[in-house]
Amino acid sequence: MNKNINIKNIIFDLGGVLIDWNPDKVFIKVFEGDKKKMEHFYSEICTQDWNENQDAGYPIAQATEERVALFPEFEKEIRMYYDRWDEMLGDQIQGTVDILEKFSKSPQYKVVALTNWSHETFPKALKKFEFLQWFEGILVSGIEKMRKPFPEIYELTLNRFDLVAEESLFIDDNKRNVEAARALGIHSIQFQSPEQLAHELNQYTKL
């Protein structure tokens, strides 16, 4: 642990860090194992930007109809994106949940979550994953109508939960989101695996 760093707060991302959400679970079957067709669908039709627009609060039904109008030949697949969203929501990533449990039980740390997630689908995650109750608070992008990596959502997280940037550690699997947090003075780790996370946490925390 770096003695010059005094971490009091841990900010967890959810999808890709604690929860295995992945549209491949549906579309690898839809495209009969053809990864090239699946990647084309992600890059041109139901893109990351399009999905993140819903994460920022845009209505799913409206977004779906607009995309169908643009790509009518993919109507069936586009409608599957949210109709079969539950199937994309996999299991918890147990190794990271174990790490979260240690921090949530420690009086030394305040533990919160910051997630890019549609306000329409997030209740399904709340119902499925008990560990989401361990956080002192969860900031959901779809509720706030803003999302990572824009600085406003990090600033809102700090303000809402009374956190100091220099005393906070942010964990996210997306490099872009990590870099945005660092630009605001928040210590950050890009998540790759529970084992890697546990190792890097030794630089910042006492657990």
Count of distinct structural domains:
2
Residue-averaged pLDDT, rounded?
A: 97
Q: Determine the CATH superfamily of the largest domain.
A: HAD superfamily/HAD-like
| CATH top-level class of the largest domain | Alpha Beta
> What name does the CATH topology of the largest domain carry?
Rossmann fold
Counting DSSP E segments of at least 2 residues, the number of strands comes to: 7
Strand line-up in the sheet with most strands:
5-4-1-6-7
Rough shape?
elongated
Main sheet properties: 5 strands, parallel
> Percentage of helical residues?
40-55%
CATH architecture of the largest domain: 3-Layer(aba) Sandwich
Given helix and strand content, the structural type is alpha/beta
Strand content: 5-15%
Query: End-to-end span in angstroms?
Result: 10 Å
Give a structural overview.
It contains twelve helices and seven strands. It has helices spanning 24-30, 35-45, 48-55, 60-70, 75-83, 85-88, 94-104, 122-128, 141-144, 151-160, 175-183, 194-201, and strands spanning 9-12, 19-21, 89-92, 110-115, 137-140, 168-172, 187-190. Strands 5-4-1-6-7 form a five-stranded parallel β-sheet, with helices on both faces. It has a two-stranded antiparallel sheet with strand order 2-3. The termini are close together. Helix 7 (94-104) packs parallel to helix 12 (194-201). It has 207 residues and is an alpha/beta fold.
Which key features would you list for this structure?
single chain; 207 residues; alpha/beta; Rossmann fold; 2 domains; five-stranded parallel sheet; two-stranded antiparallel ribbon; 48% helix
